[in-house]
Write a structure and sequence with these properties.
homodimer; 204 residues; mainly alpha; Arc Repressor Mutant, subunit A; Tetracycline Repressor, domain 2; 9 helices; 0% strand; DNA-binding (chains A, B); transcription (chains A, B); repressor (chains A, B)
Chain lengths: 204, 204
């Protein structure tokens, strides 16, 4: 039987493996990544990776889950906050990232975007990515739906709006990472306000 | 001295090299691409590649130029056409692609998106990509400026609007290619109309 202490130890181990995976992916890229590269980024023996994960795809699936939880989970908004405030907080979180102690937002996003492009070439990897990608999009769509229900947003197609905002955020991060457009997140935040959210807000 | 016949022959050769590069990139990816892989996709001897291009970066620079010309150049709109019509044509061209005899739009875009992500890791490659990327964005921005000058679009920040539309198109193509969202281009076209271009069009 797992005691709470066991579970805690196991959760710490998983986090150590996930952070080691980030560093290893950042160095080697997904294509060339071997389990032993992850082991080399850890203080523990790499046997623990094989104990916790059933191969590269299983690890990758948990890894994407881990990234997405970092972005979703850390948005702290009072459930009674106005939908507009929550929407702003979620957009900012995805564009500018939460604070990390080390290995920051853009290092993490570099890995995320590389995995995204790699899904072009690998059906199983694509399937895993889709599941996790859907959760990010939903977190935006649900705030839009909530605002419509509460009568503070216009009655737009919430799924279409959520997808559009998710796409714009993704593209802005990609431009900063690939083309070195360091002002892309700030510029995109302004463009979202000026050209997209104006379709959502009722005239004041 | 180059005669017109020489120039024509040279232009045919360059096109053959560019098309061979597409096929080779599609098979091997940019990272692993060798000049000899391109040679294997051609009927001519691969010495002609070395005769025309000064190494992998020079070839890549011309290759990006070649892709972008295919997308920019083939939009045929009467210069007196309403800006709204030209804007629609350019957006459709980038989203759905021009017609190709073989090796179609999505095969070409798969290579383009892979090169885009690869620019994360290579400063010189990024610089080359930026030059060409800027031209695509300008072709959208200029139509917006034109419409504002003619008084048929609202007086918005044309550069910001052009960038936003370019980003949205890029993200939609990426989703179709990476995540298999086959309806992404059509859905995105509808979202652009509903949520972005409504900021541009004067009330009728």
């Amino acid at each position: 039987m797992n005691t709470p202490t066991d579970e805690r130890a196991s959760s710490d181990t998983r986090e150590a493996i996930m952070e080691a995976t980030f560093r290893a992916l950042s160095k080697h890229g997904y294509n060339d990544l071997r389990m032993r590269d992850i082991g080399e980024e850890m203080e523990m023996t790499r046997q623990v990776i094989h104990y916790h994960y059933d191969g590269k795809y299983d690890l990758m699936s948990h890894f994407l889950e881990y990234i997405i939880e970092q972005y979703e989970g850390s948005v702290e908004v009072d459930s009674n906050a106005p939908p507009r405030e929550e929407l702003d907080a979620r957009i900012d979180q995805c564009l500018f990232g939460p604070k990390f102690d080390d290995f920051g937002h853009w290092d993490r996003m570099k890995v995320y975007h590389e995995l995204f492009t790699y899904a072009q070439n690998d059906e199983r990897h694509r399937e895993i990515f889709n599941t996790h990608y859907g959760r990010i999009r939903s977190s935006i769509t649900e705030v839009v739906e909530d605002g419509i229900e509460r009568g503070v947003f216009r009655d737009v197609d919430a799924a279409r709006m959520g997808q559009l905002i998710t796409d714009v955020i993704h593209a802005a991060r990609g431009r900063k990472l690939s083309l070195g457009h360091d002002d892309a997140p700030e510029e995109t935040r302004a463009a979202i306000d000026e050209f997209i959210l104006d379709s959502l807000y009722l005239d004041e």
